[in-house]
Amino acid sequence: MKILLENLTIIRGEKKIVENFTAEFNGPGLIQVIGPNGAGKTTLFLTILGLLKPAGGRILIDNKDVTGSTQKLKGMVAYLPQRFEIPRNLPLTVFEFMECCIRLNSKWPRILRRKLSYDNIVNALKLVGLEEQLWSSKISKLSGGQFQRLMIARTLILETSIVILDEPLSNIDPEGRKMMADLFGKISREKLLILSSHDPMLLMPYTSKILALGGGQAYYGAPQDVVTKGVLNKIYGECLIEVKDHIHIADWH
Ligand SMILES: Nc1ncnc2c1ncn2[C@@H]1O[C@H](COP(=O)(O)OP(=O)(O)OP(=O)(O)O)[C@@H](O)[C@H]1O
């Protein structure tokens, strides 16, 4: 599992996100995409997903050119957007919601979908830490953090080898974040997991590579080469506060 960004130039509105940028995301592993608000993390994901066309360059997934095409990505990538377009008032329980996600997925033949669903759903819900007593609750009754966990579970049952999560830790409380970080570490042992985060240190023990975006610049490499004062200064500018040996990123998340 490999995503190659080849000489990629991305422009959104007036803003240049990256120019002539080349990087290879290799899995299994965890790749963190960091950068201040508006740096272009979501834009990069939407470009990888074929929902936005780059101004230049190509995107290859497992050597297949998928640039600007959502169709070619089918069954290869699961994506969790930062903001959901799923109405919270759907009259479905947690379990029914997950069943719908499986039944609607055309990856499996219809007859198999029913058979696959029970175990897959139970595993995914347990993995993200949604307790069994919630499975029969209406999704409208879930808290923001529980709903976020459900959305993560939904990306996992699609069983793709590549998973992209846009700020999956937003809405999750501090204790839950640690649990989710461990979960992402576990997932990244088998899949290529790419996620954006405003709290890079939390996931650092599991991170194979970091992509730092900001001010039209991109730095990609091993965590120790990217999370340096020099790079973070260029990416975060004035949001970077240094207190003795401690660096604090003061963005709005
Ligand atoms: N629909 C849009 N049309 C035009 N420009 C947009 C659109 N959405 C976002 N942008 C601009 O694209 C740039 C990158 O935004 P993007 O949402 O990708 O950043 P981000 O790093 O994901 O930010 P955040 O951390 O706040 O989620 C910003 O300058 C933003 O204003």
UniProtKB/TrEMBL annotation:
Keywords: ATP-binding, Nucleotide-binding, Transport
PROSITE patterns: ABC_TRANSPORTER_1, ABC_TRANSPORTER_2
Keyword ATP-binding: yes
Residue ranges of every copy of the ABC transporter domain listed in the record: 3-240
Gene3D superfamilies linked to this entry: P-loop containing nucleotide triphosphate hydrolases
InterPro entries assigned: AAA+_ATPase, ABC_transporter-like_ATP-bd, ABC_transporter-like_CS, Metal_Ion_Import_ABC, P-loop_NTPase
GO MF: ATP binding; ATP hydrolysis activity
Keyword Cell inner membrane: no
Entry's family note: Belongs to the ABC transporter superfamily.
PANTHER family: IRON TRANSPORT SYSTEM ATP-BINDING PROTEIN HI_0361-RELATED (PTHR42734:SF5), METAL TRANSPORT SYSTEM ATP-BINDING PROTEIN TM_0124-RELATED (PTHR42734)
Protein name: ABC transporter related protein
UniProt source species: Thermosphaera aggregans (strain DSM 11486 / M11TL)
